[in-house]
């Protein structure tokens, strides 16, 4: 750790790296290598036996990725992290690390469609049951829990509803029952730290705000180091009994000298070793660049989105604006509790003119990009009913919060006057 600061602006520039030990380079070098020369046979044996930490093979670890891991762990207030090839890989690893065939886990219904598919279909085919529950009532998580439940999973700021997840409430239920909460914090980096509210693990699709420039696909898992896996031995045999895939290591014991990192070390040296979904060092470098300006960018993203929400509220062609700043009741309370650093830059609205108006609006945009992505420096828009959600029935679309006239925006960093002008001219044509 090259800084003791607690401030995100400083951590993203200094945590985990001062200069390159061999060249003194200030920018983090891209270590584009597959493998690393062992000093001697004892050194090699120590590394494989986890008696000493160090580099073996880039499928499992890499010095460029290591800096990104340390920085994101510091930013989220965790103890260690693991970079992966995509957000999807991070979601899979987050659960699969502690949930095996015959086990189950409980997930919020408010999830990114790709995560929903992974959990409902691919993981089902692996013998892992995902129980989806409505997060409106946190007690739904308790009701769905049994002796085989290994974790809870949710998104901080899920789109399209953009209703903030009750992190503290569900984390408390989980801690009572011995079930860790895993949070996908992709849409709310810096503005929310789920670990501070009792979550045990955080994941990000780094593809979005952390990268910030729409260039690279990646994911990361952060271990909060705050969950007592040993206390719940029966629920977590995979961390408390000998692992036949690693010469009988008992993870909670084997890594004790390194700190409370059993979860993340196991993910790295068993799952990543076996499944092989690493982030490339080049992409890790790109995410390090993105991370350096993340706190600054989030401030502008959020300020621009606040202004857009205000501008669109009351527009003659818009039935409803969806953004935490214009919410009321419980949703407002949750946003104020958990989004302490800003209200996010995802924003939705419903056009009174329905699907036709939605399509016309999108086709009339001149500056906003029409893409299936979020978190870019540029402003982005999509009409879910005719794209991402078009395979669902009207009823299913409504359940996910998508109405025929619903438009999703990811507000970028352009000047606010230009953002509003593009929205206004497209609305005039819709
Ligand atoms: N989680 C959320 C909230 C997302 O929006 C996405 C992608 O859109 C993912 C996870 C998956 O990330 P990736 O596309 O990097 O695999």
How would you describe the overall organization of this protein?
This protein is α/β, with parallel strands linked by helices and 430 residues long. It folds into 2 domains: 2-282, 3-Layer(aba) Sandwich (Aspartate Aminotransferase, domain 2); 297-429, Aspartate Aminotransferase, domain 1, CATH 3.90.1150. Helices cover 38% and strands 13% of the residues. It has a 7-stranded mixed β-sheet, sandwiched between helices. Strands 8-9-12-11-10 form a 5-stranded mixed β-sheet. Strand 2 (104-108), helix 5 and strand 3 (129-133) form a beta-alpha-beta unit. The protein starts with 7 loop residues before the first helix and ends with a helix. The chain binds pyridoxal-5'-phosphate (PLP). Pyridoxal-5'-phosphate (PLP) is lined by residues 86-88, 91, 112, 114-115, 155, 184, 186-187, 205, 207, 217, 219, 374.
Name the strands of the widest sheet in spatial order: 1-7-6-5-4-2-3
Q: Could you estimate the helical fraction of the residues in percent?
A: 25-40%
* Small molecules bound: pyridoxal-5'-phosphate
Write down the secondary-structure element order: HHHEHEHEHEHEEEHHHHHEHEHEEHEH
**Beta-strand segment tally:** 12
- Report how far apart the termini are: 52 Å
Question: Which structural category fits the helices and strands?
Answer: alpha/beta
Tally of helical runs: 16
User: CATH topology of the largest domain, which one?
Assistant: Aspartate Aminotransferase, domain 2
Short description:
This protein is of the alpha/beta class and 430 residues long.
């Amino acid at each position: 750790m090259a800084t003791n600061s607690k401030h995100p602006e400083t951590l993203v520039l200094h945590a985990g790296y001062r200069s390159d030990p061999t060249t003194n380079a200030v920018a983090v070098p891209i270590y584009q290598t597959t493998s690393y020369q062992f000093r001697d046979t004892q050194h090699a044996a120590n590394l494989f036996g986890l008696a000493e930490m160090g580099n073996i093979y880039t499928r499992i670890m890499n010095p460029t990725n290591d800096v990104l891991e340390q920085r994101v762990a510091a930013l989220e207030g965790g103890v260690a992290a693991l970079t992966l090839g995509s957000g999807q890989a991070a979601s899979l690893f987050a659960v699969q690390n502690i949930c095996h065939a015959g086990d189950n886990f409980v997930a919020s219904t408010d999830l990114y469609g790709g995560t929903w598919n992974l959990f409902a279909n691919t993981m089902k085919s692996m013998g892992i049951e995902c129980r989806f529950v409505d997060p409106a009532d946190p007690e739904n998580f308790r009701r769905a829990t049994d002796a085989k439940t290994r974790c809870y999973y949710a998104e901080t700021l899920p789109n399209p509803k953009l209703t903030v997840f009750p992190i503290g409430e569900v984390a408390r239920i989980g801690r009572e029952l011995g079930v860790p909460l895993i949070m996908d914090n992709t849409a709310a980096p810096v503005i929310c730290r789920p670990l501070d509210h009792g979550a045990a693990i955080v994941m990000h699709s780094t593809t979005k705000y952390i990268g910030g420039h729409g260039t690279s696909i990646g994911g990361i898992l952060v271990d909060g180091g705050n969950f007592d896996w040993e206390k719940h031995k029966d629920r977590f045999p995979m961390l408390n009994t000998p692992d036949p895939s690693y010469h009988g290591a008992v993870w909670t014991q084997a890594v004790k000298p390194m700190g409370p990192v059993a979860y993340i070390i196991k993910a790295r040296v068993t799952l990543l070793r076996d499944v092989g979904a690493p982030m490339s060092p080049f992409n890790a470098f790109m995410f390090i660049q993105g991370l350096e300006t993340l706190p600054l960018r989030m401030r502008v993203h959020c300020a621009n989105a606040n202004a857009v929400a205000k501008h669109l509220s009351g527009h003659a062609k818009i039935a409803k604006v969806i953004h935490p700043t214009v919410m009321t009741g419980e949703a407002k309370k949750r946003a104020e509790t958990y989004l302490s650093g800003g209200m996010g830059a995802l924003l939705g609205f419903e056009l009174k003119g329905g699907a036709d108006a939605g399509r016309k609006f999108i086709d009339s945009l001149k500056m906003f990009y029409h893409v299936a992505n979020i978190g870019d420096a540029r402003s982005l828009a999509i009409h879910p009913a005719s794209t991402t959600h078009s395979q669902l029935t009207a009823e299913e679309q409504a359940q996910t919060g998508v109405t025929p006239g619903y438009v999703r925006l990811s507000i970028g960093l352009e000047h606010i006057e230009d953002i509003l002008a593009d929205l206004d001219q497209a609305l005039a044509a819709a």
